[in-house]
Design brief:
This protein is largely without helices or strands and 119 residues long. It has a domain of 36 residues. The chain contains three helices and three strands. Strand 2 and strand 3 form a beta hairpin. The longest helix is centred in the N-terminal third of the chain and has 5 residues. The N and C termini lie far apart (137 Å).
Length: 119
């Protein structure tokens, strides 16, 4: 019986621990099955996408225009006229200084009830 996974022949059917390497099978004794099946893969290094480490310098002077100055230009409008009301004029006649309660409700003189004797 041949074990196809391990490439080994059994020497005895009753003794399962004793195996002999087949003549047509190549086995690297320093590798495990996992290392043989999942070996290292060779790939090229990825190209760096980072910018160069040098700063960009321009010889032109800085512009005086900013985003705020470009987008928000002053409008040519006239200032609104201020409204000035007429001065205070005293109304004709005298003012009634009574409150609503004084106007609506009359005053009644309260008299005490006759004293009743308890005894």
């Amino acid at each position: 019986m041949v074990s196809s996974y391990h490439c080994l022949y059994e020497t005895d059917e009753n003794a399962m621990e004793t195996f002999v390497i087949a003549s047509n099978c190549v086995i690297h004794l320093d590798l495990t099955i996992h290392r043989r099946d999942y070996g290292p893969k060779h790939a090229d290094r990825t190209v760096s996408f980072k910018p160069e480490g040098t700063a960009f310098r321009s010889k032109d002077p800085l512009s005086n225009n900013t985003t705020n100055r470009n987008d928000f230009k002053p409008w040519s409008i006239n200032r609104p006229l201020a409204f000035k009301p007429d001065g205070w004029v005293k109304p004709a006649g005298d003012m009634d200084l009574r409150t609503t309660t004084q106007i609506e409700f009359d005053k009644y003189v309260l008299t005490s009830p006759p004293s009743a004797s308890l005894f």
